[in-house]
Input
Amino acid sequence: MCLGVPGNIVSIEGDLADVNFGGVIRRVSLMLCNDVKIGDYVLVHVGFAIQRLEKEDALETLRLFEEIEKAHHAST
Amino acid sequence: MKGKNILLAHGAGGKLSHDIVREVFLPFLENQFLSPLDDSAVLPIERSRLAFTTDAYVVKPLFFPGGDIGRLSICGTVNDLAMVGARPLGISASFILEEGFPVEDLKRLLSSIKNAALEAEVKVVTGDTKVVEHGATEGLFISTSGVGIIPEGVDMKSSRASPGDIIIINGSIGDHEIGVLLARGEFSLKGQIKSDCAPLSNLVQKMLKECPDIHVMRDPTRGGLGTVLWEIANASDVGVIVDEEKIIVSEGVKGVCDLLGFDPYYLANEGKLVAFVPQKYAERILEVMKADPLGKDSVIIGRVVGENRRKVLLKTNIGGHRLLEPLSSVQFPRIC
Amino acid sequence: MHQRNSSYKADVTTAIIREISRLANRPFRFMEVCGTHTVSIFRSGIRSLLPKEIELVSGPGCPVCVTPVGEIDRAISMAALKDVTLLTFGDLMKVPGTYSSLSDERAKGKDIRVITSPLDALEVAIREPDRRIVFFGVGFETTSPAIAASVKEAKARRISNFYLLSCQRLIPPAMKTLLSSGNTKIDGFILPGHVSVIIGKRPYSFISDRFSLTGVITGFEALDILEGIYMLLRQHKEGRSDIEVQYKRAVKQEGNTLALKIMEEVFKPVSARWRGLGIIPESGMALREGFNRMDATAAFDIPYEDKPDPPGCLCGEILQGIKLPRECSLFGTRCVPQDPVGPCMVSSEGSCAAFYRYGG
Output
């Protein structure tokens, strides 16, 4: 539980935002997550933004695996 | 089949649709032409073979990006004929109109029908009209039949898939069902995704000219790609392997699927075909398809094998695999 | 958002699987608490790549699975009232009650509709003032703040025909009950990423402090889950039992404090019945006094009746990770996705449905 989908905010009106998911826009409530601005990525669940996501790809540790794999290939 | 009443799920194209046809309709109606349950029946006439199909169109809303119920009624019927290799000869169209339906809208739909028929090189040769009281149909329903002639040497049916066959699809999946869903304005979603609604008969004739011995062709309408692949694997008693990496899902369709929890493999398409082609012809057929406007995104998505019979194995994006079952009933939007 | 080409994913997967295989020097059994993890694991094909030493079992984090039969029956009874419109999430539509399901009742003409946000229920209530709109609210801590915000909004806008039938649950109490029973033999937890977005890390500390088990708060992409499993194994190798966060891009240590505040303003924790787990104290959510005009259980004279689970159904034990789906005598024969007996087979989220599709 549960489905949370990242989308980016294209407009804000009061505590509602239009959030873009691959070209499809959903009206999203900012009642639970109001420290956001246009351009921010938010995680959306049941029509509410529940978290602002860092734009920086936080999958840093996966880059470590990518390097391990490249090193493995290089040495075999 | 359990239960005493018809459910929406019986019309969804998945396992329950399968069940109701087999368990309720066939016992009354079965015969050697109906029972294979292919997209069209094949009837011998003199020295030739006639393909004969019927369909009903109840889509809401009536007008959507990429088409309307009129265009859909021609394309759907023509495609059922095309899937058994027939050149469409004629279509009948019955209109059940709701009292109060605007004549302007009817003219728009008839214009779409005219254009679709021209594209498909087929004529609407007979028809009927009924009017029912307001509230009975929400605009109109269209019921069609289609006939076509199957060229000699062509024999496409669900039971002909064979180990070694290559599986090709002519483009992305999910566009029709998501396009219509968005056009209904449900779930606070806004966006324009075009239905892929198109008549495939010309593309199919080009493919058959290159290789008359294509084994199977099916259009993944209700129930989607997953259901069709499973039906073919079972009708032919073979295994099917498809590669998730190769299957195209547009950004917008993916976005809606993520938001609603839908699996794109079970969404309806109205301008797509899946072809099971003998291995030695695969590359040439792919080229022929890519040269056609309705096939420019054609891609090989998998193959038929002798193992794991009656099962469809999907190789996933991370290199694992899972089974693709047929759609069991209706996909409801999920939150979890 | 994450632009990754296929060779990157395949490379990283290969590297993680190799590390996992290296660390899996004995059988390990991890519980993925969350139904959404069950679906992701199934759809991504992770099981086909994991070494056989790693066993994944599904836990009680599937709101469909833990909703008692009696709750479905009660919702159906409310929908049977002529002026009632029952709104719910799609997840609940196919769950079997004692005699019927919401989906079947809709087929018979009851006004039951699927929505994807609790705010939609308010819109319906405003548009249809002659109807009594009952929102059958289900979900865990991910969903309760959204329902709470909607209830607040309903009160502020004086929407008098909106009611909430709350079937919401809390995860940590269920996990405590599971572990305290001693029946569940697991080594660690794949903790629910989106519940944790709301509640943060602290509520899970009992897992390591009291029970010395490992836990990793994990995201839902295939690579997230693989990394989460790797982190669990690494803890075992290093002899640690901690709660770690894999899903760093979304989960903060303190959770979403605004969401928690709103949830606490509207709801109070109460005892609740879980299918298979029985009654767990402080594991359900009920409206506080200031909002209880909207409580459907008070407004409608339809009491909750405890109903037995279907005979032979092992959902309860499966939810606790005690039994696997294939150990249920009904699995795959009498109980299949298109005709489910118990909730674990309904939709793709339950363990049994996932096993059925995976195992064939």
Observations:
- Chain B touches chain A through 20 residues (CB under 8 Å).
- Residues 158-323 of chain B form a domain with the Phosphoribosyl-aminoimidazole Synthetase; Chain A, domain 2 fold (CATH 3.90.650.10).
